């Protein structure tokens, strides 16, 4: 009995039929260099962001667990915990990028469609947020003011809010939400408080928080609220952080716009059907 081998590109006959006829020819997909480039570019990008998402998710969960945020007496305030933002961001980033990573590597059409749909939803949310932020600038400002005042109230009790507040004040050289007297809202810095911090401000409000240029002076803002503005300006920053944030955005709006356009362009490119069809 003769053995029949069917290989595309060779002409052999079997009962008079050409092996290259549609009945016998195997149609193999042909990939170009661009196809392979897009496939592994999408895989590597999503792999990096999957790892990043897992790291962010892990940090968020570690923060919640270390502060015992799931305890019965603290569970009611978990919605305002900044660690919850990291958990949400890490979870969404991991699910999104993992679908793109596995889908591109395994050439799984279902996962690639899921990835494309999730990216399109993300693009829509970003555009919607940008439009709302532009049209509702006053409301956004009020929301930021409320958020910062809430962080100042819990400044001594929540280490995460304290860290965020200190970073904003030291980097933007500001104090409080609107001005340095906003710190009276905190029970420890209120002028009626019994402790040494009464009528003071945090050290990150100080113009020079280092004593002799080397040692951190945590008491440099003590009694600052009792000073008039002319005297206080040599000790602490008088301006509020809301104004500092507005100035920072105005100074860097060109760079922010370019960065957002590049990110949006990459998302649109990788979510387009033309790109996914080449993988």
TrEMBL record:
**Which Gene Ontology terms of cellular component type are present?**
plasma membrane
- Primary localization: membrane
InterPro entries, sorted: Tetraspanin/Peripherin, Tetraspanin_EC2_sf
Where is this chain's protein located in or outside the cell? Cell membrane
Q: Which UniProt keywords apply?
A: Cell membrane, Disulfide bond, Glycoprotein, Membrane, Transmembrane, Transmembrane helix
Residues that span the membrane, as ranges: 40-62, 83-105, 111-136
A molecular function (GO) held by this record is:
enzyme binding
Keyword Cell membrane part of the UniProt annotation? yes
What membrane topology is annotated for this entry? Multi-pass membrane protein
Family per similarity comment: Belongs to the tetraspanin (TM4SF) family.
What does the UniProt function comment say about this protein? Part of TspanC8 subgroup, composed of 6 members that interact with the transmembrane metalloprotease ADAM10. This interaction is required for ADAM10 exit from the endoplasmic reticulum and for enzymatic maturation and trafficking to the cell surface as well as substrate specificity. Different TspanC8/ADAM10 complexes have distinct substrates.
Assembly state and interactors?
Interacts with ADAM10.
> Mind telling me what this protein is named?
Tetraspanin-10
């Amino acid at each position: 009995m003769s053995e029949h081998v069917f290989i595309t590109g060779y002409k052999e006959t079997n009962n008079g039929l050409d092996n290259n006829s549609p009945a016998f020819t195997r149609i193999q997909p042909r990939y170009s260099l661009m196809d392979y480039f897009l496939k592994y570019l999408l895989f590597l990008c999503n792999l990096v962001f999957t790892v990043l998402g897992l790291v962010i998710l892990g940090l968020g969960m570690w923060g919640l667990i270390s502060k015992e945020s799931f305890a019965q007496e603290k569970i009611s305030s978990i919605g305002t915990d900044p660690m919850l933002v990291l958990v949400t961001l890490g979870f969404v980033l991991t699910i999104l990028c993992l679908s793109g990573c596995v889908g591109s590597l395994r050439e799984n059409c279902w996962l690639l469609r899921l990835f494309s749909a999730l990216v399109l939803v993300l693009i829509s949310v970003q555009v919607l947020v940008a439009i709302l932020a532009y049209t509702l600038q006053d409301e956004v400002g009020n929301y930021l003011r409320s958020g910062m005042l809430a962080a100042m109230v819990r400044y001594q009790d929540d280490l995460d809010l304290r860290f965020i507040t200190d970073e904003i004040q030291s980097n933007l050289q500001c104090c409080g939400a609107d001005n340095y007297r906003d710190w009276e809202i905190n029970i420890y810095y209120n002028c009626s408080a019994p402790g040494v911090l009464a009528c003071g401000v945090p050290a990150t409000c100080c113009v020079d928080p280092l004593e002799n240029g080397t040692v951190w002076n945590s008491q440099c803002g003590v009694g600052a609220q009792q000073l008039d503005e002319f005297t206080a300006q040599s000790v602490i920053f008088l301006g509020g952080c809301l104004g500092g944030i507005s100035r920072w955005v105005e100074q860097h709006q060109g760079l922010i716009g370019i960065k957002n356009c590049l990110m949006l362009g990459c998302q649109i490119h990788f979510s387009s059907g033309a790109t996914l069809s080449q993988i």
